[in-house]
Amino acid sequence: MKLKTLSTLVAAGLALSTVSLSTSAAGRLVVYCSATNAMCEAETKAFAEKYDVKTTFVRNGSGSTLAKIEAEKRNPQADVWYGGTMDPHSQAGEMDLLEPYVSPNLDQIMPQFRDPAKRKGNYSSAVYVGILGFGVNKDRLKEKGLPIPTCWKDLVKPEYKGEIQIADPQSSGTAYTALATFDQLWGTEQAFDYLKKLNTNISQYTKSGIAPARNAARGEAAIGIGFLHDYSLEVENGAPLELISPCEGTGYEIGGVSIIKNARNMDNAKLFVDWTLSKEAQEISWKEGKSYQILTNTTAESSPMALKLSDLKTD
Asked: Coiled-coil region(s) at which residues (predicted)?
């Protein structure tokens, strides 16, 4: 499978062996979470129980979370941002909205996924990897007499008019990743031309990157564009979906975790980052959180439903 590394060119399209963790902690922690609601709940609950920290989360997409953190920069209302694609996290770092932090658990992370934090000023660490693609509802396509698309370019064919959903890039890191992928595959001019054609076939731009997977699973759309681990969950739940890694190649996300600048609960924020990089926390993401990304901790066991790291080709 051919995949491309993402970069900030997308802006043009919009405008772990174990390091011991102390178990003695107290106080509060507020997490802005851009993973699935189930994953957010599982991770924060487990952290709260392990460290006796009263932990709450607010779930929102990456783009919306970035806007919220910026709006609150003079009076931060959360301590940590967990989940969502790395690009918005990096943008937040460049905007001086995050606190630099190098976790002692960083050496548990696969070497190829340690660099994003270093390149971006040590503002964010990588907790998972997700592959971009699309899921197709085989029953809906059969009902309409349509073939299963296998390439990005297939999605702009007129027969798929009104049958495709993708998230809004202004609120979703998933769509942000898609724009970056098209830019890198074809260049900015061709990418914009592609997006204009694709727009004709879009039935809905959802607020969340997860929604197209759920809607395709229910048969509300024939095709949903997003991260394939979201579609794996729907397949496990019995949906008639087929996962497609497009023939031209695709992009991938690195899921981030970052400390918000001037966090009120700084020590607990650092402890949370340390914990999310651990084997225990990363395995909770699928064992309890039902989220099937590729894990970045070298000792963590990934879900049987997850794609393999060997599917990735990094530049």
From this structure: none
| Among 239, 196, 242, CA closest to 220 | 239
Compute the radius of gyration of the chain from its Cα atoms: 19
Cα gap 260→70, rounded to integer Å: 10
Instruction: Return d(Cα 157, Cα 202) in angstroms, integer.
Output: 12
CA distances from residue 97 to 65, 94, 169, 241 in whole angstroms, order as listed: 12, 8, 20, 39
* 145-154 burial: b if 16+ Cβ within 10 Å, else e: ebeebeebbb
pLDDT tens digits, 161-180? 999 999 998 888 899 899 99
From residue 139, give the alpha-carbon distance in Å to each of 32, 156, 221, 239. 37, 20, 11, 10
Q: Look up residue 64 and give its amino acid.
A: S
Among the listed ranges 21-30, 35-44, 192-201, 260-269, which one has the minimum average pLDDT value?
21-30
CA distances from 152 to 58, 157, 199, 249 (A): 34, 10, 13, 9
Residue 47 clears pLDDT 60, i.e. is over it: yes
Single pTM value for the model: 0.83
Q: Report whether pLDDT(15) > 60.
A: no
Domains of the chain with bracketed CATH: 3-130+253-311 (3.40.190.10), 132-251 (3.40.190.10)
What's the pLDDT band for 188 if we cut at 50, 70, 90? very high
> Rounded CA gap, 209 and 168, in Å?
8
112 band by pLDDT with thresholds 50, 70 and 90: confident
How many CB atoms sit inside 10 A of residue 12's CB? 13
